[in-house]
Specification:
CATH class: Mainly Alpha
Helix content: 55-70%
Mean pLDDT: 87
Radius of gyration: 15 Å
Low-confidence stretches: 159-181
Strand content: under 5%
Distance between the termini: 6 Å
Number of domains: 1
CATH superfamily: Ferritin, core subunit, four-helix bundle
Order of helices and strands: HHHHHH
Oligomer: single chain
CATH architecture: Up-down Bundle
Length: about 180
C-alpha cells in the first residue's frame, strides 16, 4: 500500500510537470497525505517501509516501477492522456482497495482503506469531469465495470482529508498490501 500510494503521488507530480495543470499538484498533495497514513500503519504494526529511501519515480516493487514508467510516459503525451492516466490510476486504486478491505478485519486498517477508497472515487470524478470540460472527451472505464463506474460517477462527491480537483475532496489509494497488512 505504501508504495502504491507513492506511485499515485509520483505519477501526479510527473503529470503536473508535463502539463502544468494545478489539479495534478493538488491531488499529488492529497496522495502524500495518503502515503503518510499508510506509513503510520506500518509503524504501528512494526512493518518495514518499502519506499524508504526511494526518490520520486523509484519503487522497490518491479511491477510498480514498470507501471509508473508506463503511466508517466503515457500521461506526458497530452493533457487528455494525462487526465485519462489520472482516472485509470484511481480506477486501479478503487479495485485494489476493495480487494485489500476484503482481506483484513483490523478496524484501523479498514478505516484507512475506506477513506482512501472514498478519496479515489472523488479523484476519479474530478479527472473525468476535467477531461470532459477541457477536451470534450468522455472517459471510458478501463478497469471498473461500466455499472461500478457509473455508480461512482453519478454519486455526489464526499469530503475526505485531501484536496481534489474541483469536484470533490478526498483521498486516493492504490492498495495492494498483504493480508491484514498495510
Amino acid at each position: 500500500m505504501r508504495e502504491e500510494e507513492k506511485l499515485a503521488h509520483d505519477v501526479y507530480v510527473a503529470l503536473y510537470a508535463a502539463t502544468g495543470l494545478q489539479s495534478f499538484q493538488n491531488i499529488a498533495n492529497s496522495e502524500q497525505t495518503h502515503t503518510d497514513s499508510v506509513k503510520n500503519l506500518l509503524d504501528r504494526y512494526a512493518l518495514p517501509d518499502p519506499s524508504a529511501g526511494k526518490l520520486e519515480g523509484q519503487f522497490s516493487d518491479p511491477n510498480l516501477q514498470a507501471l509508473y514508467d508506463q503511466l508517466a510516459a503515457q500521461g506526458s503525451q497530452s493533457l487528455a492522456e494525462a487526465l485519462k492516466v489520472g482516472a485509470a490510476v484511481e480506477e486501479i486504486d478503487i479495485l485494489d482497495l476493495q480487494t485489500r478491505m476484503a482481506q483484513t478485519t483490523l478496524a484501523d486498517i479498514l478505516l484507512v482503506y475506506q477513506s482512501l477508497e472514498q478519496g479515489s472515487e472523488n479523484h476519479l470524478r474530478a479527472f473525468t469531469s476535467r477531461l470532459l470540460n477541457q477536451t470534450g472527451e468522455t472517459y471510458l472505464p478501463q478497469y471498473l465495470s461500466q455499472d461500478a463506474y457509473q455508480a461512482i460517477i453519478t454519486a455526489s462527491g464526499t469530503t475526505g482529508a485531501g484536496t481534489g480537483m474541483g469536484s470533490g475532496n478526498g483521498n486516493g489509494g492504490n492498495g495492494q498490501g498483504g493480508r491484514n497488512q498495510p
